[in-house]
């Protein structure tokens, strides 16, 4: 609720209202501007000391890029016994059947060695992964099959 006895009434006629030199209470003059103003001009020493990467390039990441969750064939071969134990893979007479799409993988890569005959369901794979699986007696299936 407004009232008549405000502090400014005491200051009327004093020119500076208790802030010393004229203009000391206006704007951001003494501090060199508001916010991040002047980092490329009069606050350059601060920039050099505390924020040297402010005016460098930081790269560009395309927004449509899709992250591909891939697994190497050697890593899959190492984990196959754990997958069988946890019932995420099943052992058949032809080999070990694994659905990598169900496990959250998008692509099968060919680094490593294969010691088990693997029957793998996956959307995409590399040539070297396909060759190594066929050499071990397994095969790659599309998810529809």
What can you tell me about this protein's structure?
The chain is an alpha/beta fold. It folds into 2 domains: 26-58, no CATH class; 70-141, Ribosomal Protein L15, Chain: K, domain 2. Helix content is 23%, strand content 15%. It has 4 helices and 7 strands. It has helices spanning 7-11, 44-50, 73-85, 127-135; strands at 70-72, 89-91, 96-99, 107-109, 118-121, 124-125, 139-141.
Give the strand order, joined by hyphens, for the main sheet: 2-3-5-7
Average pLDDT works out at 89
Q: Which structural category do the helix and sheet elements fall into?
A: alpha/beta
Low-pLDDT residue intervals, each spanning 5 or more residues? none
**How is the main sheet built?**
4 strands, mixed
Give the percentage of residues in beta strands. 15-25%
- How many distinct folded domains? 2
The general outline is: elongated
Counting DSSP E segments of at least 2 residues, the number of strands comes to 7
Helicity, in percent? 10-25%
Highest-level CATH class of the largest domain:
Alpha Beta
List the helices and strands and how they pair.
Layout: H1 7-11, H2 44-50, E1 70-72, H3 73-85, E2 89-91, E3 96-99, E4 107-109, E5 118-121, E6 124-125, H4 127-135, E7 139-141
Parallel strand pairs: 1-4, 3-5, 4-6, 5-7
Antiparallel strand pairs: 2-3
